[in-house]
Amino acid sequence: MSIRQYVALALMGLAALPFTTVRVRAAEEAAPVAAHIKLSGDLNEAPVSSDSLFGAAAENFKSKLDRIHKAAKDDAVKALYLEIDGVSMGWGKLDELTRAVAEFRKTGKKAFAYMEGGDAKEYLLATSCDEICVPESGWIMLTGVRAEVSFYKDLLDKIGVKADILRMGEAKSAAEPYTQTKMSEASHKQLEGVLDDFYENSMVGRIVKNRGEKKFTAEQVKKIIDNGPYAAHAAEKTGLIDRVVYQKDFEESFKETLKADGVTITRNYGQTKSEELDLSSPFAIFKLMSPSKGASSSNKPKIAVIYATGVINSGKSSESFFGESSCGSQTMIAAIRQAENDKTVKAIVLRVDSPGGSALASDLIWAEVTRCKKPVIASMSDVAASGGYYIAMPAQKIIAEPGTITGSIGVFGGKMALEGVYDKIGIHTEVISRGANAGIFSSTFPFNPSEKEAMTALIHDAYDQFLDKAIAGRTKAGVKITRKELEAVAGGRIWTGRQAKEKGLVDELGNLNDAVAAAKKAAGVAEGKDLELLILPKPRSFIDMLMDAKSETRAPMMRLLPMLREAPELAPKLRAVEGFLRMRGEPVWLMEPCQISVR
Question: Would you please indicate which residues are annotated as catalytic (active-site) residues?
Fold first, then answer.
């Protein structure tokens, strides 16, 4: 064989290598993947640090949604595998997750839900998938919707505490648990309206729509709910779920269901991994105490997403005894100013998940949003009520989920008088004062008539401001509403997002992505152009959270720790108490009336 022939054969071999590599790579890319995403625990909205102590980076609600959206765009992903395991969410987050799964399915891909057992909201989320599977020993706790309001007046009476609280708004019932032993007629009426909406639309309507292949009518679904809860086989027979199967068998069935060979499951699809710290190294402590990594500092145009989560309080944001974020006025103002001063930020989305709190802190945040010269769009999550609604009012547009709890335009304030407690333990107080209202903030005695009159005037002024600023905000958004019309939907009344849109309190129903799109439009950004997101406020470092453990709010709650170990079910009852502890140094409060829960 000649040298020329050897060279030709060698070149032919080399030429074949890239094509072989391409074919192998293409085969690998074509391998069908089921993207596994586990939903469990609280779906907190607050920004989280990219740093972590133990491997997987912490996630917030947006992180979960981003992973579903990523799977929808990934050509290798042929199915979404949702493992639903003890996830806690409100109606707003349920709406947003349902929409994310629906958008995934619009790509022509399948979505499967596996749950060992679930409450109503977990099941309602699962109905957004093509198939719902439960193991033989599992259950579906579909029993309806309920609002639970705990009343503490008798307890306060027993220990000698008098709750002396004043309010503006006949349905502003946040103070009722401390002053009454049952719901007022106005409170009962407003909760009836909210629960009717959740029951008819968020629960019954969702099952009728999502389980369409079963051709359920609304009346049939209501009868099914009345007969709940259901063991796995009963749920299958009723048509609530599709199969009774254990998780391993469920996963092995993907091959047949997707009609494809070699289906692989990508566990924790899209979850960011972070560096694991070697805690045996003395230098690891420096990493723990270093500040969290800052937000993107690129020169590309951005939309700032500013999160307002938890009870609103004066000062800096912190973390509660129960691990929930608070919304501090100083932290929020700093975040808004950072976005305002950043030339790459074209518009702001204010993401609100808050029941309200301090009237002063809410107003300070409101003023900063009003002062901001860049477009601001408000996006409401599970709850944006009272102070949570207040800080959203200056936005050019307010977008809520159908299940968002919002409104609660009303004001209250007061104090807990401890004279009875002191009497019981042998402490007697004598008073010398000058000025008719010198004892207005005394923690010992209730208000005297003059102090009550002065406090009423203070609260009335705050309520007038609330109404005036709400009208100004609605006018700015292009909604015509008179004071009389606003007062009819104010008075402390709460509404679902659906109801609030009908009443003119919000402008559109939609999710965070809709708010980002509206912000881009308001900023004059061309449709379809993607912008970076600047997430604010900056997540707190480990040392920040450690210092927060010594906060004055946590200190009294720490004494309850032994009780909570023995009776963890008390935690939901005590969250409201902690919220009031955060505001105990302020005279006027903006808080939603109660938490609505589904069991």
Answer: 386
Report the distance separating Cα 248 and Cα 259, nearest Å: 18
Contacts of 315 (CB under 8 A, 6+ apart): 328, 329, 330, 361
Burial of 433 (0-12, 13-18, 19+ CB in 10 A): exposed
In this predicted model, what pLDDT tens digit does every residue of 19-42 receive, in sequence order? 333 333 333 445 688 999 999 998
Statement: the pTM of the whole predicted model exceeds 0.90: no
**What letter represents residue 74's amino acid?**
D
User: CA–CA distance from 326 to each of 158, 323, 354, 516 (Å)?
Assistant: 31, 10, 9, 23
Assigned CATH topology for domain 298-413+478-592: 2-enoyl-CoA Hydratase; Chain A, domain 1 (3.90.226)
The answer to whether residue 333 scores a pLDDT higher than 60 is yes
CA distance 391 to 281: 45
> pLDDT tens digits for 383-437?
999 999 999 999 999 999 999 999 999 998 888 888 898 888 899 888 888 889 8
- CA–CA distance, 279 with 53 (Å, rounded to integer): 9
Return the SS3 of 438: coil
236 near 214, Cβ under 8 Å? no
Nearest to 266 by CA among 471, 42, 83: 83
Number of H helices, E strands in the chain: 25, 25
Cβ partners under 8 Å of residue 525, min gap 6: 301, 346, 347, 531
* Residue partners of 593: CB distance under 8 A and separation at least 6: 149, 171, 172, 173, 174, 176, 187, 190, 191, 408, 492, 494
Range name among 41-50, 86-95, 358-367, 541-550 with the lowest pLDDT average: 541-550
Distance, in Å, from the CA atom of 141 to the CA atom of 131, rounded to the nearest integer, reads: 18
Burial pattern 298-327, b for ≥16 Cβ within 10 A else e, equals eeebbbbbbbbbbbbbbebbbbbbeebbbb
**What is the Cα–Cα distance from 150 to 474, expressed in whole angstroms?**
34
pLDDT of residue 554 exceeding 70: no
Token pair listed for 270: 């899209």
How many Å apart are CA 168 and CA 463, to the nearest integer? 7
Assess whether pLDDT exceeds 90 at residue 105: yes
Which is it for the CA torsion 323, 329, 332, 334, positive or negative?
A: negative
Please give the single-letter amino acid code of residue 391.
I
50 near 293, Cβ under 8 Å? yes
| Cβ-Cβ contacts under 8 Å for 288 (sequence gap 6 or more) | 53, 277, 542, 543
Q: What percent of the chain is helix, strand and coil (3-state, nearest 5)?
A: 45, 20, 35
Write the DSSP assignment of 286-299 as a string of letters: HHHHSPPPPPP--S
Q: What is the dihedral of CA 420, 422, 423, 425, to 10 degrees?
A: 130
